[in-house]
Amino acid sequence: MDTIADMGGMQGMGSTKLNDPFEGPFDEEWQKRAFAMALLSMRTSGTNLDTFRWALARQHPLDYLLDGYYGRWLNCAINLLTDSAIIAPGAVEARARKMMGEDVEEPPVPEPNKPDYKPTAAGSIRKIDDPPKFKVGDRVRAKLMSPAGHTRLARYVRGHTGVVRALHPAQVLPDTNAHFLGENAQHVYNVEFDSHDLWGPEAEKFTVNFDLYESYIEETV
Amino acid sequence: MTFQPESSRLPIEVRTEALESILIERNLVDPKVMDTYIKMYEQDVGPLNGAKVVAKAWVDPEYKARLLEDGTGSIAEMGFKGPQGEHIVVKENSADVHNVIVCTLCSCYPWPVLGLPPTWYKDPAYRSRMVREPRSLLSEMGLDLPDDVEIRVWDSSSEVRYLVLPERPAGTENMSEEQLAGLVTRDAMVGVAKVNVPETV
Question: Whole-angstrom Cα distance, residue B13 to residue B5?
């Protein structure tokens, strides 16, 4: 799905400044709790890191932007826990309103419904037997596709041609793993794109190196 | 998820507390485990790890060659590994080539060597513009690169994590590995700054 999370090349986002390099990672206390709960929610909901990123990406764009980084982690945790029926839809909001002194009824605890899913190993890197389809130096095209679910094929590289610069270890395919449709481990290629191919002749001169799963790319004719 | 208009949005800190209270009362999370994770990334795992790797590479050419060849293994040698560090690739900056790291799709970052990402790395401005106009964005962030320097942007779109090996600044020839590590900043290891020598040294 083409979500707000896919930000590469969007315009109108303003500018940013460096902060104190010695500042810690959290600005506020609640961010620490949201961070830890979100990490733990993967296990509690019986899901995985790809499901986690999907639960981050599919938030409403306004929530995604207004709640900030750890706010969207909290929303992600709620998405994962609600999807696996660990908590009921609306449970967090009801509890929050109660904590704020409102007289609300909380939804009953649902019957858990975790996905029928188990990883074949820890992490995302896998050994596979199939030889890689492409080699360093090949010109390849990122496919034009827009799947209904999770993907790591960013919009800004789709349909563009680049050069394979490196082969990475084979990895679990996020598109299927996020939805418990199999790990589909495949070769991952580092592909270099020229800025003028991505953004036209007026663009600054630079290269972008983007990691593409084998099923994201095709030979150029 | 349906968007709630501003007037009915609940404060994020209350929603966070609400989820925590639900999970704790049902024994679904252990607050002690939460505290362990928080402490790990507040105190133990941060950019000092990466700075030690960089300083070692600066003083030990053999280590540097290994680091550029096998980032994960050479970093693990120094004791740094863990979540978001399954496969780390190191890119060397020089007078001619400037590497910089981004994650346009979320905010993937090499946790074992840099800790959790800083605010600007997660900023939509950084995520959207680094792959479209890196020279302008770097300049706005305080790094003006000469026109003939080649910019290479690394978008962390798979589980591979990138780390920049910054250029060793001139005037540091007599410094020890430990002193050098003290100069290396998080920003330089992402590629949005250079390593500078403080004037007092």
Answer: 17
